[in-house]
Amino acid sequence: MTTNTQKINVKSALKYSLLPGILPRAKELGSSGFGYLSFLFACVYRAVKILPAHHPFVNPANIGTFGLMQVIKEASNHVHMGWKNIDQILVFFALLAAVAIMAIQFLLLIVALMTGKAFAAGGAPGFTSMFKTPNPVNDIAFMLLDLVFGIPSPGSGGAGPNLGFFGSSAIPTGSSPFHQGLHALFNFYNLALLLVAVLIFLYYAVVVVIETAQTGVPFGARFSKLYAPFRLVIAVGLLVPLNYGFNGAQYITLYAAKLGSSFATNGWLLYNATLLNPTGGQQTEMVGRPRAPTMDELVYFSSVYHACRQMYELWVPKYTGSGSGMRAGGKTIEPF
After folding, report:
1. Going by C-beta distance under 8 Å and a sequence separation of 6 or more, which residues neighbour residue 304?
2. Is the pLDDT score of 62 beyond 50?
């Protein structure tokens, strides 16, 4: 049994509370080279015999001890130019191009998120952000989501229309009784989960206090100084029921669905705005026209329609008490 001689004092407590090592851990993550991806590249290089079978990079026990650039650099030292090694050359440059494309995609994603208004200047159909629907009030997807969950918008009501959480006009009168029952069900479910989470949190609090007193290390020797406390606090916080019985995690999921639907809507609008006619014909020829029904289908539907109407006239007065029969052809038709 090993003992830790580290002592808890004011300096160590303040350092842990105010400087929990976020920057060093971020630096470590950036310089780690994504161990499993590096190991995957090493295995590919090994498959085409660029790296030897006994190389440390192809040993699973060494995952995390080398970075992606180290693997590429080591592979470049073993590649020999020549037609007989054309397979190795193609694989090496293919993986190198994959890394470059992945880096470019990350950069383009960051640029796209920071300059969403650039789409409007490029001929897009009037939206200023990829994740904001131009007309959410009449958006079919938002109307469906509002009808399912029935969460009114926090700013709705008053002089304007009562909009839902997703900004549509599907619930102008607010939550229906069915929605209120669904909200009560979610609230009951979330309270049960919160009870379990609180019990787990109390258990870990007791264990952490005991291990801290025993080892002298803040939060014990087994727990991560950064992730363990934040993870417990955030987990319990996300399970607390908020408005209409939904907790924080569920609201985050609904908001993610809202952003995703807006992204899909804007993409579809952009596609339709920039789509050109590839057939060379008239634009009206691209519109699908419904097929006219045949005469026998019309006669069949007409006979069913008249039969249903006649039965309705015969039976409705019998069960509603509105009369003893219906007038037809100058005669009173009594119900059965």
Report:
1. none
2. yes
